[in-house]
Design brief:
The protein has about 140 residues and is mainly alpha-helical. It has 2 domains: about 35 residues, no CATH class; about 80 residues. About 60% of the residues lie in helices and about 5% in strands. It has a two-stranded parallel ribbon with strand order 1-2. Strand 1, helix 1 and strand 2 form a beta-alpha-beta unit. About 0% of the residues are buried. The model has no long low-confidence stretch (mean pLDDT about 80). It comes from Saccharibacillus kuerlensis.
């Protein structure tokens, strides 16, 4: 069997031999050999793959960082909403307590002061009711 690399001259010989005598059939096959890549080209391909992987890793890391920031923003917004609800509840409670001060004080027997009549409190009246261990700097 004759191997050729695309050489057409073999076919002419076949024609010449077939005309003289046919003792055997000559078959030709085309063999394609892959040439090995040179070392520098292999290194170039390896370097380009490493650069591509590095770029993809950087982009993925940035997306993870952005996702984490969005998650932190959402958590901060939910905390802000909860604090605003607590502030609104405290404001309602304050309003209710402000409205309840005067009736509660009147029920304990206190007198409401007017602008023209000030109320005087005797200092000695409060000292008799204090316990002996109480702080007197009030």
């Amino acid at each position: 069997m004759v191997q050729t690399r695309g050489n057409l001259a073999i076919r002419e010989r076949e024609k010449q031999q077939s005309s003289h005598s046919q003792q055997y059939n000559q078959k030709t096959t085309v063999v394609t050999r892959r040439a090995e890549l040179p070392g520098r080209e292999k290194l170039l391909y390896l370097a380009s793959v490493l650069v591509a992987v590095a770029l993809c890793s950087i982009v993925a890391w940035r997306y993870v960082h952005i996702y984490d920031l969005n998650h932190q923003i959402a958590a901060a917004q939910s905390q802000t909403n909860q604090i605003n609800k607590d502030i609104a509840q405290a404001a309602r409670d304050e309003q209710v307590l402000r409205q309840a001060i005067v009736p509660t004080a009147l029920s304990f027997g206190l007198v409401q002061a007017t602008e023209h009549e000030p109320i005087f409190v005797n200092r000695n009246s409060g000292e008799d009711k204090q316990s002996p261990g109480a702080d007197t700097d009030n």
